[in-house]
Amino acid sequence: MSPCGRQGNLHQPKLRGPGFHTMGRMKPQARTEAPTLYFDGACPVCSREVAMYQRQQGACGVQWVDVTTCRADQLGPDLSRQEALERLHFRCADGRLVSGPQAFAMLWQTLPRWAWLGRLVARKPVLWLLEPAYRVFLAVRRVWHRQAR
Questions:
Q1: Residue 75 has pLDDT above 90, yes or no
Q2: What are the Cα distances from residue 47, in Å, to 24, 43, 65?
Q3: Which residue, 49, 13, 28, is CA-closest to 91?
Q4: According to the model, what pLDDT value does residue 148 have?
């Protein structure tokens, strides 16, 4: 349960820190009411980490979307369920969609206790270093999913 007393909501926090980095050349698609995190609720590691973030101050300003159970329209026109299941995604309030380490950076910037880390991670050299590590995690996660079935 989040500090707001429910899982996700429609409040919109101000995102601070260095500029936003988007996936490839993607442009903002649609304005959202609040920043939105798309996560794989069937992944035990992912869901535990998200549950921890949901308990943080500032979590009330984020919409939390479990892509394993959400309606297709909750993903938006530029994110398929398959893409959302493959990597963590974060839609900024202005509609920009980021994934992987960039998604973590943007999420952390919305959470006061984590904002310093979000600003650090959002820097291009740090993202460049974290992307390969994130891809290794994704490969390990796929093995966990196969073993869990």
A1: yes
A2: 26, 6, 11
A3: 28
A4: 60
